[in-house]
Structure formats: C-alpha cells, structure tokens
Write a structure and sequence with these properties.
This protein has 37 helices and 27 strands. It is an alpha/beta fold. Helix 35 crosses helix 37. The longest helix has 20 residues.
C-alpha cells in the first residue's frame, strides 16, 4: 500500500517499521492503549524511560516482560551513528517494569528500509544488518536461555556466567576438535572455522581443492556446532539437486568421533523436496531456487527447477500473484532479472532466525550474486565452500578465508592427481575458412536438423568464432579426432589398448551430436562406447556393480526413461566399461564425481576462470588401482589426468591453476642429479614434488615400506608435501619476518632458498634413496614421447594472450592522450587545471569512467587492470578495489606518475605519510589528533575520490564529533586541508 504524500519522512519511516514489526508477529500499540496480554509480543510506541534516558520509539515486550527497544529514524539515516542512542534507551528501563535481563539486551535501529540489531548477550556485542525483525517468541527464548557456567578467572566469576547463553556465547567455549577420521587439512579447517565463529566474524570462506573433502569437513563442523555449540538448526544451501543428494549421503555416512554413531542417528537431516521445512529438522539441505520459492510463499516448485543449476532454474521458478503480474508484464519474463538480485520479501512462516549457520556450497557461483538476497535473508553466520573462489567470492565473504587448500597441496597429499596439457591445433580451428561462390553446401535447420542443398551465390567466409555455431566444418572435427587417435593416444598412453575414460566438452547440443558421430567413425567405436550426455538425453542406461551368484561383482543394467537425473546418466560412465568417451556441454562441468576419468577434451572455449577450474576439477579425483582397472582393464594406476586442448583454452590468462610439473621434458634422473648438486630453483623443486607424488600413487605397500626404510620413516608423499610447504609464499614470509620486521625481496628469496634446501635434504643428501626412486620409476612407467613440444604444452600465457593485453593497454593509453584536454578528470590528473578549479571530484571521475565504457569496444576498468597485470605482474600490487577510484589508479599508472599499479585504499596511508613528512620538513606541525583526522580523510578519499563537509555527518567522522570536531581540530585550516588531502590521495 503506497504511503500518503503528506507524511513527513519520520512518520513514513514509522509506518514501514510498524508493518515490519507486525509481519514478524508483534502487536504494535500506542502507550495509551497498551495491553501487554494481547499477544506474545507487543511493541509499545513512545514509552518514557527513566530520567535522563529519553523516550523509546518502541519498547518491545515478550510474554509481558520488556526485552528490547527500537530506535526509528527517517530513510537515509546512517544507523551506526545512532547505536549509542539505542544503548541509552536499553539502559533506561524505569523501575517496576518487569524484564528478564537488564539492561535490555535486544536493541534495534531502523528506517523501515534498513534495520540493524545488537544483541547485548553476545560475547562482544556489535550491531549487524538484518533483513527483518526477529519474532517475539525468539527474543523470549533467547532471554530465557540457561547461563554458560565458565571457570573462574583470577578468582572472579566470568560475567558471561551470569547472563543467558546464546549460540554465539556457547561457540566460544567448545571443547577441542577430535580427529575422528579427518585428515590434517580438514582438521585445520574445522578449527579455523570455529575460531572465526567464536570471534564473531559474520562470514567465512573455506577454499579446498576439488576432491579434498569440503562436504565431509562441513558435516564434521556442523556436528560440533549442534552438539557443543547449541545450534538449533543449520542450513546447507546448494544450487542444484544432485549436490543436495551428495550432501545427504555425506551426512548419512558420517560416524561421529566421540559417540561412534552415525550423524543421522543423532540428528534429523531433511533434504527439501517440497516447500515445507520439518520443524524437528536439525539440518536442512535445500537448493537456493527452492528456498527462494518458499520465501515467496509458493506452495510448491516444479521439480525440474531443483535438478537444473540455479542460473538455468531461474526460468523455471514460478512467481505468483502480484509478483507474477508485475515482473512478467514489465520485463517479459524472468530473464531480465538475471543481472540484479532477485526480489525477496519477509515470510512470517520462515523467520530470519530459523537457522544459526548457513553453509553455502559451491559459493563461487550465482548462489550469492543473482540469488544473493536468498542467502542474506537469514540472521545467521554464512560459511562458503568452494574449490575455485573468484574475486567476488573473496569480497562477499569479507576476505575472511579460514582455509586455503589448493591444487598443489592436494597433489602433494595424494588427495588429487596433477595434470598435463596436450595441445592440438588446426588451421580452421584458429583461422576459420572460406567456401568459394558456386559451390554447394548443406543448410541444416537448428531445431529440426532437416537438411537442404544450396548453391552459394557469393563466397562464404567465416572465422573461428562462427565455427560449430553458424558453420559446421566436419573435416575440422575429423582432423582433430584423427590427431587424438594417431598422435595423442600413442604418445601419452602408449601402453593402452583401451581408450582411457574421456570427457569431451562441446559448444552446444548440436556440436555434441556432430562430435559423437565423427568420434564413432574415426575411432571405430560403437554406440555404447561413445555417448552424448546432456540435459536433452531422454533415456538413461544405468549400470550398477552388484554381487553375482559366485560372489564376484557383476554389472546389472537397467534403463530409465522418465525422471532422468544427471547422476542417472553418469552411472555407466562412472561404474562400467562403457562408455569410453562421454560428450557433454555443461552438465558435467561441476559438482560431479567420475573418479576413473583420465582425459578432459576441450572442444569449446571457456571465458570464466572459475568455470574452467571447475571443469578441470572433473579430472583431479584419485581412484584406487582396483576401481580403475574395473572400468579400464589395462590401466595400472591413475597418476595424472591430461587436458586435450583443441581451442587454446589453457592459454587464456584467467586459467590460474597450472601443473606443478614445470619442467615436463626433464627426466626424473636429471632432476635428482640437480638437487644432489645443490640446485634449489623453485621450478625444479615444484617439478620434483609433482613427480614424487605421482610415483607414490603407483607404489604398493611393500614398495612404500622399502622407501620408508631408506628415509627413516618418510614416504615420497611426505617429501613432496614438504617441498610444497617450502614453496608456499605465506610460509616464506613467516620465516623471513622472524628475522626482519619488513623483509626485503633479497631476504624473502634467501628464506625461500633455505626452506627449499631443507625440504630437499632427504633426497639431496641420500644417494641410496635417489637410486631407489629411479629403480621404482623404471619398474612402473614407460617413456612418453615429448619430442613434439608444439603439441604437448606446459603452463604459461600464449603469445596471443600477451598480444591482446598489449592491444588493450595501448588502446587505454591512446584514449587518455586523445581526451586529456576534453575530460575534466584527465585535465586534473595530467596536472592541467582550469583557473579556479579546486580539486578532483567524484562527478568528474564518473564522467571519465562512463566515457571509457562508451568507447567501442568499451574499455572496462577490470579488463585494463588485468591486461597490465598480464604484461608485468611485478608492477601490479593487488586487484582492483571495485571502486570508482580504480580509474584514478589506472590513469596515474598509465601516465607514468606511479611506478606500481595498486588500488588507492591500499596506498592511501603511504601517500599521506609521505605528504606529512614533506609538510613537516617545510615547518608545518600536526598534533596526534590532527593526524588521526587526516588518516580518516585519506581513507575516505581513497574510496570516494573526494571529501566534502557533508561527509562529516557520517561515520567514522561522527565518532569524533563530525564537522564540529573537524573545525575544532583544524580551525580555519580545514578547507585547505580538505583540498590538500584530495590532491595527495587522488589527484
């Protein structure tokens, strides 16, 4: 209902606050008509408090007792600046009014648009933004919690022992973590997460390599939060149903370390298949699209929307009522919402406090961009799980990374296998082709696939981007497949007679169909050996391994034609000899587990670094030799996987994860000789770690014992892991910092050499071990022909990628030169001001940014930043801050005013200190109070380009008295100081 235009801003805000309170179950009353028995929760307006404490805009009663206050402000008010006011009201309860806790523990500030909440029962009370008000039953329950009796501290009782103990208090006193089947990286993750939660950090990110057990680690953590932390309910959020089913299996199979029973014997776990949460569920597993549907109040959701990934499912989620009419009529459907967070409104039946912790699986995806409001609806800790975080992921989780366990660590630990890259190039793939006029071509309808002949009346010229979309060149596919057959298989798998399990990524369904037909023809394989697996596959051939009549495992084959799910289509690929080659588009790109997979074949490009890393992750899984032989009879062990790159996807600069094997053509014998002679080069060490981890994966029990006997107990995997640790930049910095507070590049290099030398010592100092390694290698591995180096590539940017970066930076610098006299910001940044012009303004920089984007082709700031990083990583310090000031940093770097490219917030303090030093050398002096103000000003300019007197009405300036405080400190010099700070940081 629209508000009357005559209402003042304050009155309009109170109308919205009334609505929000009522939606959350509160009965809102005027003081004169107060009736505390009207319901569980009553919010009384404008209640006078004890002398000196003013009047509470709303005093909240739960079960007839005062529990909190709401401070109302007009829309646009910055609420952190009025927290002291709420605190004053909470402490001013008049005598005689019943209250379970005094001062009142639950403090809200709200404009009706934004609401912040402070729970004074928290170990360290601090406000947080919430989507809506809590229900009165919740506040009553929180105020009535049993205290957590803590040990005496210096003979005195801990104050927390005298207050009701909420979840945030209980997680500060949890017992130590027991191993319980978790390996070291998983244990560290659980401990680090609990430390983050106990410190009150609202968001935490767990980055663990694909296959390293993120989900089981989350299950172990959730068990402890339920048992020891007093969590009532936890949400495990996924973005497709198959991930939810996999998570449920992990909960069902997790055996608790202290009790010995299964998780599901102790706690109720619900996987949402309908739009109703079981009130007794301790853990709820659901897709983000189903939670969105539930928050919208929809009685149910189409099943297909759960099976698709969240982005695809967006079109399947049904809006009802006014939302449907408004959105569909205005936008023509849900597609237009893809670039904005989806609208979510408060649902009284699903309160914001329903969950204490929300785990967000695969949190690098749109689960927190397009669907962000679904994630942020809850007043809960958010924990992200991903193998491939993007810059946006780091930002969303406030840079609070509680675990970084990458590909190299997983390879060294034997959790993952490393990879090699095999490059296949053809003329048409890279350059396109031309069909002369007069020749006959097929025309094929995209939908019906009906063909017709047509004679060209003009030449048909197409480039690589049109290939397999607008134009299909069968001989291009055939040439690539023949190279796979005649070159790749004999060179990389010379000992095999069976094609390794191979996954081919096609551009679209039609391209996949063409690939299947040509693969079958050129490789001499039948329908069962080469299959297309996409969402359009209608029938699934499901293969399960079951005990036979004689006790031996046999294959049981069934067929499914309705309700086919992705995992149904993968059963045969995972568990059976057939198919040998699966062709897909995106369905198997993420979230699947096909351990016997040894070849990833890219016939399509991938622009997203995150998606590419996820696609690569399909090959990293470790599989036991017996399980591998069950589907690939002539395979000894999976020690690596191979990327067959037919489109240059590995040459894109966004593909960050590179093989550990930096020297793929150098023999193991030469590597061992090098380290024996004292070589501590990081690339040599990294390559040796990869080879040792690969060899260890192929050793039997007796062979591992023989190595341990030689080393005094170390395995080859232990040695590899030690090398990886020595190459860790954080470890290097830690060691160097112990010797020097600010280590130089030379000191860092010396620390790394020392670490590498120590890690290599077991091999470098033991000729007997080196010989044993070579003997084991010769018995397990045949030589791979690496003479054709133009086909088998290592890591590194391609020449084409470097040329693109050169072109982009050249275009950017040419634009600056061309428009330096035209755009105000450029005139300022070049140092040519107009008479009377004071300083650089936000409007001028915004004008420059828009001009860059309006250019054809546009010059996006992040792309230009990445181009400079590609050309000279040593001069680029950090990623763009996603602020308007990024354009200032780029211009100053491109015009050679700065030697390094760094976000302004990262360098503002250094620039300020340099300016202060120059000013003091010239005779000016600054008091400590003035320096504190100058630091705040510099940080503000670094984020906002300029600073105006109006900005002093906002935090952090208000904490030091706002504009009046600034005038008190600087007096008549304030205007001069504001101009100087703007010039120092941004101009």
């Amino acid at each position: 209902m629209p508000l009357p235009p005559s209402l003042s801003p304050e009155a309009a805000a109170r109308v919205e606050i009334d609505r929000a309170l009522e939606a959350a179950g509160w009965i809102v009353q005027d003081l004169a008509a107060a009736n505390l028995s009207a319901g569980i929760g009553v919010a009384v307006r404008e209640v006078p408090l004890a002398k000196g404490h003013g009047e509470a805009d709303y005093l909240l009663y739960a079960n007839g007792e005062a529990v909190g206050v709401v401070e109302a402000k007009k829309v646009g008010t910055t609420l952190t600046g009025v927290e002291v006011q709420s605190d004053k009201y909470g402490a001013g309860l008049p005598k005689g009014i019943p209250a379970p806790v005094v001062p009142l523990p639950f403090l809200y500030e709200s404009t009706g648009v934004e609401t912040r909440f402070t729970n004074r029962l928290d170990p360290v009370p601090k406000s947080r933004e919430i989507f809506a008000f809590h229900r009165p039953e919740t506040l009553a329950a929180w105020a009535g919690e049993e205290p957590l009796w803590l040990p005496l501290n210096s003979g005195k009782a801990d104050p927390a022992s005298e207050r009701p103990a909420n979840f945030r208090t209980r997680i500060t006193a949890m017992p130590g973590v027991e191993a319980g089947g978790l390996w070291p990286a998983q244990l560290d993750t659980v401990r680090n997460l609990e430390t983050s939660l106990a410190s009150g950090r609202p968001r935490a990110l767990i980055q663990m390599a694909t296959g390293s057990g993120k989900t089981i680690t989350a299950v172990a953590s959730i068990y402890r939060l339920l048992k020891f932390g007093g969590a009532r309910r936890v949400l495990f959020l996924v973005d497709r149903a198959n991930l939810g089913r996999q998570a449920l299996k992990e909960f069902q199979s997790y055996r608790t370390p202290d009790d010995g029973r299964l998780f599901t014997e102790l706690y109720n776990v619900q996987r949402l298949t309908s739009n109703k949460i079981d009130p007794v569920a301790n853990v709820v597993i659901g897709t983000v699209q189903r939670l969105y549907s539930m928050l919208r109040g929809e009685p149910d959701m189409p099943e297909d929307a759960d099976e698709l990934d969240a982005d695809t499912a967006l079109d399947a989620v049904t809006l009802r009522g006014d939302a449907a009419a408004g959105v569909t009529a205005a936008t023509g459907g849900l597609d237009a919402l893809r670039s904005e967070p989806l609208p979510v409104v408060y649902n009284p039946s699903i309160p914001i406090e329903l969950f204490d912790v929300v785990f967000v699986d695969e949190c690098h995806r749109s689960i927190y961009t397009l669907w962000r409001q679904v994630v942020e609806y809850w007043d809960a800790f958010l924990v992200g799980l991903t193998a491939t975080p993007s810059k946006l992921t780091y930002g969303f989780f406030d840079g609070n990374i509680v675990q970084e366990y990458g590909h190299e660590n997983a390879v060294a630990d034997g959790v993952n296998v490393d990879f090699d890259v095999y490059r296949i190039r053809t003329s048409i793939t890279e350059q396109g082709s031309k069909v002369e006029a007069g020749q006959y071509v097929d025309r094929r309808d995209r939908e019906t696939r009906r063909k017709r002949w047509e004679q060209l009346d003009e030449p048909l010229v197409y480039d690589a981007s049109a290939l397999d979309r607008d134009v299909v060149a069968p001989d291009q596919i055939r040439t690539v497949v023949r190279a796979f057959r005649d070159r790749f298989l004999p060179e990389v798998f010379p000992e095999r007679t069976h094609v390794p399990k191979t996954l081919v990524f096609a551009k679209d369904d039609s391209h996949a169909d063409d690939l299947v037909k040509i693969l079958r023809d050129e490789l001499g394989l039948g329908n069962d050996a080469v299959q297309k697996i996409t969402y359009k596959t209608g029938t699934a051939r499901i293969v399960e391994r079951v005990p036979g009549p004689d006790g031996e495992e046999v294959e049981r084959v069934t067929y499914k034609s309705s309700g086919v799910r992705p995992e149904d289509l993968l059963q045969s690929f995972r568990n059976s000899y057939h198919p040998r080659i699966a062709v897909t588009v995106d369905m198997i790109a993420t979230g699947t587990d096909v351990k016997p997979l040894e070849v990833l074949w890219f016939m399509r490009t991938v622009r997203s670094r995150t998606l590419f890393e996820q696609m690569k992750g399909r090959g990293v899984r470790v599989v036991s030799p017996d399980d591998l032989k069950a589907v690939t009879p002539d395979a000894e062990a999976k020690t690596r996987y191979v990327i067959v790159d037919c489109v240059g996807v590995c040459e894109e600069p966004l593909a960050d994860t590179r093989p550990m094997d930096k020297q793929p053509t150098v023999s193991l014998e030469r590597l061992l000789q090098a380290v024996a002679m004292g070589n501590v080069d990081p690339e040599v060490a990294s390559t040796l770690a990869s080879r040792l981890a690969r060899l260890d994966a192929r050793l039997g029990k007796d062979e591992r014992a023989s190595v341990a006997a030689t080393t005094g107990g170390l395995s080859l995997r232990d040695v590899a892991h030690g090398i990886v640790d020595a190459l860790d930049p954080d470890r290097v910095l830690q060691i160097a910092s112990a010797q020097s507070a600010a280590p130089t590049e030379k000191e860092l290099a010396a620390a790394q050499m020392s670490l590498i030398r120590s890690a290599l010592a077991p091999v470098a100092g033991d000729p007997q071990l080196r010989q044993r390694i070579l003997d084991l290698k010769r018995s397990k591995e045949q030589t791979i022909d690496t003479a054709s180096v133009d086909s088998l590539l290592g890591a590194g940017l391609s020449p084409e990628a470097r040329e693109r970066a050169v072109g982009l930076t050249a275009s950017f610098e040419a634009f600056l030169t061309e428009h330096r006299d035209e755009l105000t910001a450029l005139r300022m940044l070049y140092g040519t001001r107009e008479p009377g012009q004071a300083r650089l303004t936000r409007a001028a920089v915004e004008e420059l940014r828009q001009a860059l984007l309006d250019r054809k082709p546009p010059l996006a700031l992040e792309s230009v930043w990445q181009a400079y990083e590609t050309l000279d990583r040593g001069k680029v310090k950090g990623a763009p801050a996603r602020l308007l000031t990024d354009v200032v940093a780029l211009v100053r770097f491109a015009t050679h005013q700065e030697d390094e490219l760094a976000p302004l917030p990262a360098v503002a303090r250094a620039r300020l200190e340099a300016w202060l030093a120059r000013a003091e050398a010239g005779g000016r002096t600054f008091t400590p109070d003035q320096r504190a103000w100058l630091t705040m000003m510099a940080e503000h300019v670094a984020a906002n380009v300029e600073i105006e007197v109006e900005d002093f009405d906002d935090p952090p300036f208000t904490q030091r008295g706002g504009l009046a405080g600034a005038h008190r400190v600087f007096g008549a010099e304030l205007d001069r100081v504001l101009q100087e700070i703007g010039e120092v940081v941004a101009a």
